[in-house]
Amino acid sequence: MSKPALATTVARINLINNFLLAVGKTFIGYFAHSAALLNDGINNLGDTISSIITMIGISAGSKKADDDHQYGHERLECVAAILLSGIIMFVGIALFGSGISAIIKKTYLSTPVPTFLAVVASLASIVIKGAMYFYTRWAGRKAGSPALMASAGDSLSDVFATSGGLIGILFSRMGYPIGDAIAAVVIAVFIFRVGVQIFRDGMNQMVDRACDESFTAEVRALIESQKGVMGVDLLRTRQFGSRCYIDVEIAADPNQTLTEAHSIAERVHKKIETSFPTVKHCMVHVNPSRKKQ
Description:
The chain is mostly helical. It contains 8 helices and 3 strands; from the N terminus they run αααααααββαβ.
């Protein structure tokens, strides 16, 4: 299965799971008298919309380069991740306000105690969301998809959020009704925090941020190990959606022919692109070495 096909398949699976969780937890939360579970269901409804955006971003980002987009469409995945972060942060703010309002107005005192069904639904949600996190993260890394990695982060946030909700439900059942309202606030904080992180990651990839230092060090070591390379004068990297670009200036023997210098540059170019699948393209420039021969 190709990387775009894998990413699309996982996004579809997440869409179905999020929709089923949204419907199930919203209804159970309402009839089981749990504000935390109800809010968690609304959160999953936001996840459903997010999954749709993720699928659109992956589909658009996998398109080949054309005359109007000669560098490809990978950045559209970053746009999807940023839109996803906006939805997540909006849901977090809304649920936070709802929870704080319930605590201030003490409306939790007149709310029936959550039933045992709310406990069962929360436990089932934690297991399902946990499985979704590990599966989506694996697929995101394999496909090199920032949109899927953002979706995986959202699933992990849901695990923590639902766990907090479960604790609140249990406290309410033990005679502390404020626990459910506090759990709703905790859920909101987790949701907003993940939204901010996804937004930050998406923006870093949109503004040509350099690749991480460990990756750059590996690239430099590979270049320096190539025959004919006497040094690396300049090495720049920049993220481009799920891929990256590399610009490098190497030093070579100034007494060799142009053809020989070109061969070195071509060898470095091919070695980088074959050794690092995330590299979309690299440009190699040859400088005459200033070292004494």
